[in-house]
Amino acid sequence: PTAARFSPTHPPSTRTPTFVPTYGSPVIAKIYCQGYNEVDGSFMVSISSKVTMISVWESHDDQIEFMWGVSSEDSAFVLKYGLTTSSSLTNEYLVLLPHALDAGQKYAFEIRATNRHGASDNGFINITTASLPRGGLFKVTPSSGTALETEYLFIATNWTSDPSVLPLSYEFFYGE
């Protein structure tokens, strides 16, 4: 809540105390990962998807500044607008670009909210990335042919990954 304090000095003409509002720290109630469920204290995400983290906070001060940070098993990972994020690091939400995170890793994201008087609070969220698909078979029949003439059959069976990212989708394309 907003509190009032009185300045020890008074304007010379009125000798009336000056009202100066003070504000307590902003409170980060929670950070959640949009579109994903929390399991065992962490959100399991797919590296091929955009990941949006949203902070839920409250403050009686309307001038709040935000700053996101991260620590990970991969110490080379950094948050950088345009490289790993599509949102500024000073928003109350953070959007990670697809493929910004590495598969099978753990990340701890932090947001700091600071009011105009320097009072602040931090919120944390743990993100675990799903492992890459594994254990499957990929078969092409026939094994050779002529481009745009030969009809090919692609079979992808028995692939698996972390249950939270199932079902898997498959994409086939021609490349050199």
TrEMBL record:
<dbReference type="InterPro" id="IPR002859">
    <property type="entry name" value="PKD/REJ-like"/>
</dbReference>
<dbReference type="GO" id="GO:0005261">
    <property type="term" value="F:monoatomic cation channel activity"/>
</dbReference>
<feature type="domain" description="REJ">
    <location>
        <begin position="1"/>
        <end position="176"/>
    </location>
</feature>
<keyword id="KW-0472">Membrane</keyword>
<dbReference type="GO" id="GO:0005886">
    <property type="term" value="C:plasma membrane"/>
</dbReference>
<keyword id="KW-0677">Repeat</keyword>
<protein>
    <recommendedName>
        <fullName>REJ domain-containing protein</fullName>
    </recommendedName>
</protein>
<dbReference type="Pfam" id="PF02010">
    <property type="entry name" value="REJ"/>
</dbReference>
<dbReference type="InterPro" id="IPR014010">
    <property type="entry name" value="REJ_dom"/>
</dbReference>
<comment type="similarity">
    <text>Belongs to the polycystin family.</text>
</comment>
<keyword id="KW-1133">Transmembrane helix</keyword>
<dbReference type="GO" id="GO:0006816">
    <property type="term" value="P:calcium ion transport"/>
</dbReference>
<keyword id="KW-0812">Transmembrane</keyword>
